[in-house]
Amino acid sequence: MARRKIIAGNWKMNMTPTEAVALIEELKPLVVNEEADVVFCVPAIDIIPAMEAARGTNIHIGAENMYFEEKGAYTGEISPKMLVDAGVKYVIIGHSERREYFAETDETVNKKVLKAFEHGLTPIICCGESLTQREQGITIDWIRQQIKIAFLNVTADQAKAAVIAYEPIWAIGTGKTATSDQAEEVCAAIRVCIGEIYDEATAEAIRIQYGGSVNGANAAELFAKPNIDGGLVGGASLKPDFGKIVNYK
Ligand code: PGA
pTM for the full model? Predict the structure, then answer.
């Protein structure tokens, strides 16, 4: 069975609630694609107005992060229940910016992934190597380690529903996209790794995105690769170019 593409925007720390509504109004007609899941992952404060603005469209609203506890004394954090109650289905977990600036580790990523599944949320689990790691030839080893820890104690059924975003850190926000062959090589290796942890059926079902300077001009070539099931898009998700990415064919 062919995997359904999933194309997600990651707004990062951009867009006030007012701007969020205006952007969704602008992009709404451009991101119609019956054949793909289209997700806008927005800042927490934008989730409710974005949900309202996207009502009746094919746009799913996602979150950029969540905490791994149910509730309590964790000032500033968002719980999985809050996301579910707001109507969120997808949540980005372990983006490299969260790992770099907010001390997230493979272990906290794993806790968040388990918690997301417990609440019926679909995690978009990020992994990716630095330029040094790529130059040292340890990309695949590094990614396999990230994946193995992220999926600790995750069941095969849960894994089948998960989304992995392979985002080489050197390609994020730099305009330096990985070539489609480089992206495919790592996405294929991730699928092999999932097959080793679980089984062939799980490896075939899980969706793997590429992220890192995806734009309207390079999406078609990237998404045509057999192991790339869509993209996680930063900068270009805030522009009409996102419509071209969603309708990449
Ligand atoms: P970019 O960001 O598309 O701006 O490179 C991708 C991401 O960080 O998810």
Answer: 0.98
